From TrEMBL:
Residues 71-169 form the HD domain. This is HD domain-containing protein. Gene3D superfamilies: Hypothetical protein af1432. It comes from Dethiosulfatarculus sandiegensis.
Length: 193
């Protein structure tokens, strides 16, 4: 059994945690991150990239940027569609946990970050949803984790899950376009390939 890695890196690294009002929920999110990190080969949380093909962007940076994007988009959507009310706590929880399994789906190697055996055994985000459910989080939280990617086949069951899905893919494609990599939107990339 690996030694528990310090939760301080999680608490200080993920800006969205400061917006979670419910302390029990915040503790559950931290526990999910700690479990995946403990199971990973990453010594420093910020060393894990959000994708081996974009290894200069850490997973933590990706989650933080997506937190800002999603909250800004939620504010704009509600401003221009007064009948729409998005649950910010659910949305932020989804953003914070959507890629938690990348800590074990990507691993360091002598050649740089690579996709792990786990990533070949199950679709991206599946393990993250399993960890969330094992932590006692709801099936609704598992859905926003699973539905953020097309790879699981899960259909988003809320406006919040749809928003996360599109902004996550959009952010990835903006970064891919800036590096002249194949775009996900035209079928150019699949996570783990």
């Amino acid at each position: 059994m690996k030694q528990n890695k310090p939760t301080e890196q999680i608490e200080q690294g993920l800006i969205g945690l400061t917006r979670i009002k419910d302390q029990e929920l915040k503790n559950d999110i931290i526990a999910c991150w700690q479990r995946c990190w403990n199971e990973s080969a990453w010594e420093n949380l910020k060393d894990c990239p959000f994708n081996p093909h974009l290894s200069d962007v850490s997973l933590v940076e990706h989650v933080n940027c997506l937190t800002d994007l999603v909250l800004g988009a939620a504010d704009s959507l509600e401003k221009h569609n007064p009948e729409l009310k998005l649950d910010r706590q659910y949305l932020i929880t989804g953003v914070l946990l959507h890629d938690v399994s990348k800590l074990v789906e990507i691993e360091p190697s002598d050649e740089g970050p690579i996709f792990s055996a786990l990533n070949r055994q199950m679709p991206h985000a599946t393990y993250g949803a399993m960890v969330a459910m094992a932590q006692g989080l709801s099936p609704k939280i598992a859905n926003i984790i699973l539905a953020h990617t097309k790879l699981t086949g899960a259909t988003p069951d809320s406006p919040e899950a749809v928003l996360l899905h599109y902004l996550d893919y959009g952010m990835a494609d903006v970064l891919r376009a800036s590096r002249k990599l194949p775009l996900i939107m035209v079928g150019g990339s699949k996570f783990g390939k």
